[in-house]
Write a structure and sequence with these properties.
This protein is of the alpha/beta class and 285 residues long. The strands form 4 sheets. Strands 4-3-5-12-6 form a 5-stranded mixed beta sheet, with helices on one face. Helix 1 crosses helix 3. The longest helix has 26 residues.
């Protein structure tokens, strides 16, 4: 089978939409003979007859109807691809693994819409180490673990406290704040792909046991049962309040740096504006 070309699909759709070879040729800006040759080459490539031609009309065969429907979808996808490549800077996709920018998220969305009406902001949740950046799901990513990868550039936009998530029935839930030592005998629930806390946060000899999870919903469900505790950035508490789970600050745990990260060789033109706005929000401006 020969390769099918986009021009052949456009020709087929034009014939069906216009109703005649003559009108299809006018719509495509080519000769009627060129339309006939292009359709014939498509039918040879597919090995099937696509159209019935009479002196009065052109109608698709049963197979032709299916091919036309698929051709429309293919052409639509190609159009979207071209639009994304040529005007994709009209959209800014920001990926995050767990909690975007926490309590700043609504203000960021509102201020961005007001100050950058020509660039739509889309927040995308992807639970991967790069929050969707390496996967092509976003243009910028909110990262709370530094990436040791020279393909990416990053900028710190703010700091967040570390909070302990624990069951509301836990005796520690009655305290206003905690210390790392209060948790050393507990089971720590961690997400090693995207989480910000590992046992290495504790001194050797007093590190808690761990269990693993892979997304924030499971993390909250297990913590609410009282079987484990968790350590997370304060943004999680703002974005994921959950009945049965309380958050308490851990006084002697180092804060977490929040970074915006992007591809070094393909920066979105709105990166600097996003950095400035988010930095201002974290600063409290």
């Amino acid at each position: 089978m020969d390769d099918v070309e986009l021009r052949q699909l456009r020709c087929l759709v034009a014939i069906v939409d216009e109703g005649t070879f003559t009108d299809a040729a006018i719509a495509l800006g080519v000769s009627q003979a060129a339309v006939s040759r292009t359709l014939a080459s498509l039918e040879r490539a597919l090995g099937v007859r696509l159209l019935r031609r009479t002196s009065r009309e052109v109608t698709p065969t049963t197979t032709g109807l299916r091919v036309v429907a698929q051709a429309r979808r293919v052409l639509s996808e190609v159009h979207n691809l071209v639009q994304e490549a040529t005007s994709g800077h009209g959209i800014l996709r920001i990926g995050y693994a767990w909690s975007a920018v926490g309590r700043h998220t609504p203000a960021f969305q509102r201020r961005w819409a007001a100050t950058h009406p020509g660039t739509d902001l889309h927040l995308v949740r992807v639970n991967s180490a790069t929050a969707g950046l390496a996967e092509g799901a976003c243009d910028l990513a909110v990262i709370r673990n530094p990436l040791d990868d020279r393909r990416f550039e990053s900028a710190i936009i703010g700091l967040e406290r570390r909070l302990c998530g624990l069951s509301a029935e836990d005796p520690l839930a009655t305290r206003r704040s905690l210390r790392l030592a209060d948790l050393s005998e507990r089971i720590l629930l961690v997400d090693r792909r995207t989480g910000t806390t590992t046992p290495e946060l504790w001194p050797p000899g007093s590190r808690p046991a761990t269990e693993e999870t892979h997304n924030v919903d499971d993390w909250l469900t297990v913590i609410s049962s009282g079987r484990c505790v968790g350590m997370t950035a304060e943004s999680t508490a703002h974005q994921y309040p959950r009945p049965g789970v309380v958050y308490r600050p851990v006084r002697d745990a180092e804060p977490i740096a929040v970074r915006l990260t992007w591809w070094r060789d393909d920066p979105h033109p709105a990166i600097q504006a996003a950095i400035e706005l988010l930095t201002a929000l974290y600063r409290g401006d």
